[in-house]
Amino acid sequence: MTVPGVRPLRLFPVLWPLWQVEISANIYEEQAYEVIDRFLVRAVVEGGVDSPDELARFFGLQPALVDRCLAFLGVIGHLTVDDGHVRLTELGFQSLRAGVRLTPKESRQKVLIERFTGRPLPRRYHHGSLHVLPEPRIPDHMLADRSRFLSLFAATAFQPQIVDTLAARPDRTEYNLPNRLRDITTVAAQDAYLPAYLIETEKRSLLAYTAVGDERDIFLEEICGDVPSIHAKIDAETRQNARELWTEWLADSKLGPGRLLQLRNGVWRVTLLPAAFSGAPKLSLSSVGSFQLRKYHFLQLWCDDADVRGRAVAERALGMARLSEVRTQDDLAERVGMLADRLEVAAPSISDLRAYARTNHLRDHLDHLDALA
After folding, report:
1. What is the domain class of 33-99 according to CATH?
2. For 220-235, how does the pLDDT look when each residue is reduced to its tens digit (9 = 90+)?
3. Using a CB cutoff of 8 Å and minimum separation of 24, what contacts does 42-48 make?
4. In which domain of life is the source organism classified (predicted)?
5. Residue 210 CA to chain centroid, in angstroms?
């Protein structure tokens, strides 16, 4: 609603198809050289002493001790012993140059691949707070409402070359594949689905939003522009007469009288009496300014009473203070300021929120406010 020049028409919860690919790779752990190991390696490279017997004589060591050391360095991939000649591997040379013994360890991790285009998802999609689903449905306990998520269908089959191409990219660290990983192989590729919201505008473009951030998801929007079948899926969903749809909803809602109005930006709004926001079985106070979704159309819930909107901001602000990403009073103030602008009231201060929490006996909310830096 705040993007200049945009008239949003419909909102589609979708499950975006991905591959969640598990990879195996070697990662090199830095260890201090054992004294004998390091001098054996230096003798081979710097002194040209390249046989086990010569190394034993050169250092005055027991041949059995030299053989054990060479065998260990061979096991960790630093050298080979063929026909009585000792030769360093590339890993052995790297370790000597670094002054540490690089020991390979297996590392397992996952990368996400977009299924329509085969493009890897940027690193920000791999944060632990972002959840992808193993099947194209959202369990009921994870739904805050009864939204029906559309499953987008991509007929492409996974090819291991996708990971090989990613591994060869100079910017692969931006896609959750660190440069320190070597000898990358694909272990398994599983279906995965990312909950997302596509907003159809009057110009038939699609805006995308995901839990990656509060702003538009430009990565998915670019894919929408490149894949006609996504637009075809949206176009196939029946368009409703918005006024008729919301008139029927209002009649069934038992919320009392309401006034329907289409705003200049194309969004439909229903203005209700303060009594409609009195809690169950009616609407909660915090729902003022929020949206009702029905058959992919959306309606903003509104109240002309500025006091009701102000209390709605306070209720939602106290909820924001509990979010893990809100760590300071400045974090909270920024979010509350944007919310207050949308509800067209003055933003409450931290002192105002404390007073509201005390008046309404919200002790746990006070504790969260006091915990902010």
Report:
1. mainly alpha
2. 999 999 999 999 999 9
3. 42/96, 44/79, 44/86, 44/87, 44/88, 45/88, 45/93, 45/96
4. Bacteria
5. 8
Confidence at residue 146, expressed as pLDDT on a 0 to 100 scale: 65
Cα–Cα dist 303/79, whole Å: 77
Q: Which residues of the chain have pLDDT under 70?
A: 144-146
**In the chain, where the domains are located:** 10-24+107-235, 33-99, 242-304, 307-371
Closest CA to 12 of 230, 242, 240, 234: 234
Neighbours of 277 (CB within 10 A): 22
Angle between helices 350-359 and 363-371 (to 10 degrees): 160
Res 121: pLDDT: 96
Q: Report pLDDT digits (tens) over 351-361.
A: 999 999 999 88
88: which 2 tokens?
A: 């360093």
Say how far apart CA 73 and CA 43 lie, in whole Å: 14
Architecture of domain 242-304: 2-Layer Sandwich (3.30)
Nearest to 172 by CA among 131, 242, 122: 122
